[in-house]
Specification:
- By secondary structure, the protein is α/β, with parallel strands linked by helices.
- Helices cover about 55% and strands about 10% of the residues.
- It has helices spanning about 1-20, 25-35, 55, 60-70, 90-105, 135-155, 170-180, 185-190, 195-205, 210-225, 230-255, 270-280, 315-330, 340-355, 390-405, 415-430, 440-445, 455-470, 485-495, 495-505, 510-530, 540-560, and strands at about 45-50, 75-80, 85-90, 120-125, 160, 285, 290, 300-305, 330-340, 365-370, 370-375, 375, 440.
- The chain has a 4-stranded parallel beta sheet, sandwiched between helices. Strands 1-3-2 form a 3-stranded antiparallel beta sheet.
- A hairpin with a 2-residue loop joins β6 and β7.
- The chain is globular, with a radius of gyration of 28 Å.
Length: about 575
Amino acid sequence: MLKLKKLAADAIVSALSAAYPGAVLTAEDAAAMFEYPPDPSMGDIAFPCFKLSKMLRAAPPVIASKLAEVYDCAATERVSAVGGYLNMFVSSEYLTGDLLARIENEGASYGKPHLSDGQTVVLDYSSPNVAKPFHIGHLGTTVIGHSLKLLHEFAGYKCVGINYLGDWGRQFGLLIVAYRRWGDRAKVEEGGADELVSLYVRVNNEMENDPTIMEEARDVCVKLEHGDKECLELWRWIIDISLKEYEKTYKQLGITFDSYRGESYYTDKMPAEIEKLRKLDLLKIDDGASIVDLSEYNMPPCLILRRDGVSLYPTRDIAAAYDRAQTYNFEKCIYVTSSAQCLHFAQWFKVVELMGYPWAKKLVHVPYGTVSINGAKLATRTGNVILLKDLFNAAIERVTEIINEKNPNLPDKEATAEAVGVGAIVFYYLSGSRIKDINFVMEDALSFDGNTGPYAQYTYARTCSILEKAGGVDTGAPAKLTAPEEAELLKTLSLFEERVRAAINEYEPSVVTRYILDVCAAFNRFYHDCPILSVNDPDVRSTRIRLVAATKTVLGSALRLICIKTPEKI
């Protein structure tokens, strides 16, 4: 609808000049004023005249009526003045001659907003704490982050996906202590991340009655900071085991990263930032710890160094941000983490601003809601988690059962079951606003009824099946719309670029998810009410086949933007 709004805005400006000589309104301002009527019978887009009332010294209904008398735009077939609104109805000629032709000509490029000429966007997402397996709590940062990367790439940005592994800090001190006390190398090699988690859970439980564990863990952290050979060897081994586990999950999700630089990479880069804080007189000593006082900004102090001199999360984040600014010269650096970390990011964002770094204003924190399991908070140290591999396997098994029942001869059953099963979980997660907390219920996530990922993927597969049976698409045949469902489908497809822009501006992939459901609903109404291959009129038949192809193009692009695979047969 963006092009229609531009054409209509130009016509509004011309009509305004004719009806009210001397009145000034730019086409850009007019385009920004358009609204969508709550009822499609009222029009496809509406221009509210209320803001013009003061300038024109006239009542909004009067302005709308005068504009209706002189409004002229080839893209709209008629207009009506209702109250203070000028309602416009898009013409069939525009839908077929411009919109449908544009989708066909642009193909996978249709809907690209062109917001950038290749500026770099760095995205920090997924970033699991090493030595812990992927669980449902990691899914948010991973799929929201990757979707935002895909959306920004779609809009013309050069994107760098960074997996900022949590490979440093307190948990490694505890894990190394646990391994030394109870671990077995062969058992860890065989059990992988699962065995590491068992050790981590045990050490946390034992710690409650044994204060020496925490003392040992602190000693290990200090030794790691100072390059102790034995501790570093254990640390690298633990990381290697964890990464092997993570790669399996990323492969299922179709996600790759450009960098795996974790927290440890910045250990030798922190001293320079700490020294700069000192020179700027920003670093204060409070009870032995080094802090930046943020009371002036209504925030608690930002801790830079513990009393024993060991670095903390803000220290490493500041060093990492500086390194990324120097390496990538980013237009934006986006961090996708739980909303529980909002204060942390607000604090160190303020610190780098106080340090005078010009790129501080380009840092963006994208928080998302927390996940609970049947109302209970996730906690690896207690073992209250749902592992992603278990969740994915359960979904894949459910899809496999359905395929064996309904389409047992389907080629590549295993790959399709994985695409649909994993897609069901991802779609479920991205269906709601990212900031809302999720109470994860396994049965809901694995439901394939209603507005779900499998429903969207099946709709896409349906378009593929129709096109295969049609034997081709004749884009040169005359287009002929004969049913309202056809026009409504095209109008829905016309909204793609707007939805992509909104998703990027709001850092909200669920905008695309909801749009996918709108496209599916419009297409399935069209499919059920309008015969496609069996219709006698050749122009109607070719037009409807073109509509199916256009739906496949848009639906496929939209699904891929939210990390959902698009099998052509289900």
